[in-house]
Q: What sequence folds into this?
C-alpha cells in the first residue's frame, strides 16, 4: 500500500508517521511506501519498515498536486493548512493554501481518472461552527464559521463530499477538537494557553492563563488525533452515505477542571505555576468557540477520545517527558 | 443609485428588472442606472425611469468581473448560475460558472478596496440541503447537498458570509424555494413538472405528472421571488450578525393539494388535462428534495410568501395569461 501524507512535518503529521513506523500498517494493509511532504521537508521516522520519500512542496503551486498523485497513492492524508490566526491575518495566503491547495489536490486526483479512487482523509476543524451554539452541538448543526480558516475548512468538507459522491475519491473529513497537550514551545495561536497551562507547569515553568476558570472547551490528546487518522483511513465508508464529514469525539472540560486534573496528577506545586493574567482579546476570541458536542455518529463509527483530563495529562507525561514530571 | 444585475436574462432576473422599471427604486433609493448582464445580452425593460446598459458576459472568464464592478455599483444582484441538471451532467462547467464565477465576482469587489462596500444579494437554493430531513427544516439545520449544484451554492454562501464579515461587501444570500408557476415552455429540469401540471392545463394543454400525488415540496411564486430580491437589497443587515444566508419562506404543498387548487381556480376540465405517467428517475431525484421548512428568521426579517396555492395560481393567470384561463 502506498501512502501519501501532505502536511507531514506538523505536530499531528509527525506523530501519525511515527506511530505508523511502529505498526507498519494502515487500515489493515501493510504500508510498502510512504510519500511525505510539507512546506519544509519532513524527516523519515526512525526504524520504519517501509520506504519513505520526503520532499518540500507548496500544494498551492501549479503542478505540485499532479506530481504528488502521479504515483497513484492508495491512501492520501491531507493535513496541510495555514492555522487559524495566520489565515485571519493574511486573507490571501489563507485562501491560497487552505482552499486553492485543497481544490488543486482534489482536481489532480480527479484528473488521474482510469478508475483511480484513493481513500482521502482530510483534517477539518470544529472552527466550521460559530456561536451562538446549543449546549451540545449535534451532528446536524449548521456551519457558520466566524473565521476565514473555518470557512476554508467548511468549503473543503463540501468539496470532499461532492467529489466522493461523484466517485472521484473515497473521502472522510474529521473535525479535530483542540489538541491538548501540544508538545513543544508555546505558539501564538489564541488556543495555545489550553496546552500551555498544563505543559509549562509539568516542565517546572510558569504559564499564563488569559481567560476565566469557567471557560469550557472541546479537547483531545495528540494520541487521540493519531487514532482518528488511523481509524478514518481504514473506515468502512459504506455506512457514511453522503455525509462524510464527522465531528470527532473529545472531552468537554473547563479550564478549572483542567487545572484540578493537573493538581491530581502533578501536585499543588505545578498548579501554583499558573499565573492568571486576563487578556480581553483572547477572552473575546474564545467566547466564539464551541464548548461541547454530541458526536453520536463518530462514536457509533468507532472513533474514541479520552474519558477524562487526568488520562490526557498522563499521556503527555509518558509521551513527552519520559514519564517524569519536571521542575 | 447604480444597480448591477448579473444573470438578468433569466426568468427571475427579467421579472425583477420589469418590477424595478415600474417602481424606479430599490431598497428605498431611486435607481439612476442599471447595468444588466448575462451570457446572452438581457433586454432593457420598457419604460424604465433609469438608464440601462445591457451586455453579454461570461462571469467565469478572466477580467469580466473586474470590468463589471469597475463602475462601483452600489447594489449587486448575483443571479447567474448553471441549473442543477446541467451542473450535474457537466461537472467542470458547473464548477466553472457556479463556483469560479462567484469567486471571481467576490474577489473583484474586494480588489476595488478604497472603502468600496456594496450590498450584494446572492440567490442560493434549498438544494444546499440533502435528505434525510426532519419534518420541517429549521434555520440551524446543516448543509449536506446531494448535487454539485447544491454544493456550489453552499460554498457561495460560506464565501459570502466570510467576505461580509471581513467588510469587503455587505452580503445577503437568499435560498429560493422551487418557483411555481414558471412561465414559458416546459424545460428539462427534474422540478419542471411542478409548474407544468398547472401552467399547461391553464393554457388548455395536457401535462404529464411523473410522481405520486402525495409528493410534498416547497414552492413560491415568481412574484414572491421578486419580492425576496427587493427585500434583500434593502434589508437592514445589522440584525443578521454573521448569519447572512437565509432560507426564504414558501408554501409546503403536496402535488394533490396543487391539483385541488387548480380545480378550485380553473375547474375540473383543467384538472382532467393532467396525465399520470410515473417516471422512476424523477421519482428518485425528487425523493431527496426538501419538503418543508420552518424559515423563522426570514419571516421575522419581513420576507413573505404566498399563504396558499390558489393565490399562486391566480397570480400566474393575472401575470401571464392576461387574467384569462385558456383552452
A:
Amino acid at each position: 500500500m502506498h501512502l501519501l501524507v501532505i502536511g507531514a512535518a506538523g505536530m499531528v503529521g509527525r506523530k501519525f508517521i511515527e506511530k505508523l513506523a511502529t505498526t507498519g500498517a494502515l487500515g489493515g494493509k501493510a504500508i510498502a511506501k510512504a510519500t511525505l511532504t510539507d512546506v519544509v521537508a519532513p524527516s523519515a521516522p526512525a526504524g520504519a519498515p517501509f520506504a519513505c520519500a520526503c520532499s518540500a512542496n507548496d500544494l498551492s503551486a501549479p503542478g505540485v498536486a499532479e506530481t504528488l498523485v502521479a504515483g497513484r497513492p492508495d491512501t492520501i492524508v491531507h493535513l496541510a493548512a495555514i492555522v487559524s490566526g495566520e489565515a485571519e491575518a493574511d486573507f490571501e495566503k489563507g485562501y491560497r493554501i487552505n482552499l486553492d491547495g485543497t481544490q488543486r489536490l482534489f482536481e489532480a486526483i480527479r484528473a488521474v481518472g482510469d478508475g483511480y479512487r484513493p481513500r482521502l482523509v482530510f483534517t477539518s476543524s470544529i472552527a466550521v461552527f460559530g456561536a451562538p451554539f446549543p449546549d451540545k452541538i449535534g451532528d446536524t448543526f449548521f456551519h457558520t464559521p466566524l473565521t476565514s480558516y473555518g470557512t476554508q475548512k467548511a468549503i473543503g468538507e463540501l468539496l470532499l463530499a461532492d467529489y466522493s459522491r461523484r466517485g472521484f475519491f473515497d473521502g472522510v473529513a474529521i473535525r479535530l477538537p483542540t489538541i491538548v497537550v501540544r508538545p513543544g514551545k508555546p505558539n501564538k495561536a489564541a488556543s495555545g494557553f489550553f496546552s500551555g497551562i498544563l505543559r509549562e507547569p509539568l516542565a517546572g515553568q510558569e504559564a499564563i492563563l488569559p481567560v476565566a476558570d469557567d471557560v469550557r472547551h472541546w479537547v483531545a490528546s495528540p494520541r487521540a488525533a493519531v487514532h482518528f487518522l488511523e481509524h478514518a483511513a481504514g473506515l468502512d465508508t459504506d455506512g457514511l452515505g453522503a455525509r462524510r464529514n464527522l465531528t470527532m469525539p473529545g472531552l468537554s472540560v473547563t479550564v478549572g477542571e483542567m487545572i484540578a486534573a493537573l493538581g491530581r496528577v502533578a501536585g499543588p506545586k505545578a498548579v501554583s505555576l499558573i499565573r492568571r493574567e486576563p487578556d480581553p482579546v483572547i477572552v473575546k476570541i474564545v467566547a466564539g468557540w464551541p464548548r461541547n458536542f454530541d458526536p453520536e455518529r463518530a462514536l457509533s463509527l468507532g472513533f474514541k477520545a479520552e474519558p477524562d483530563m487526568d488520562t490526557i495529562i498522563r499521556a503527555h507525561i509518558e509521551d513527552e517527558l519520559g514519564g517524569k514530571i519536571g521542575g
The mean pLDDT of chain B is 96. The first helix of chain B runs from residue 11 to 23. The domain at 2-178+220-247 of chain B is CATH 3.40.50.720 (Rossmann fold). The two ends of chain B are 45 Å apart (CA to CA).
